[in-house]
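batch_manifest entry 22 of 60
target: SDR family NAD(P)-dependent oxidoreductase
source organism: marine metagenome
requested by: lab member K.T.
priority: normal
notes from requester: please return tokens only, no post-processing; we will run our own comparison against the previous entry in this batch. if the run fails, retry once and flag.
--- input ---
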Amino acid sequence: MIELHGRSVIVTGGASGIGMGIAKVLSLAGASTLLVDRNFEGVQKLSDSLEGIHVPFKADVTDVKDVEKMVS
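--- output ---
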């Protein structure tokens, strides 16, 4: 498995499905993540279940203002 210690990754759709799966694999590889989804409770729950630094963030990636907040 690739080592991602010291790397930060933005994961969209992190509350379920493929996004959640990607976040779990990135966590195992040592990456820190910004877990983004419209479902804040879902990404909060995922964040709490992962080891390392994983920050939940509520955003709709189809909304420009939400995306600007996410990357600022």
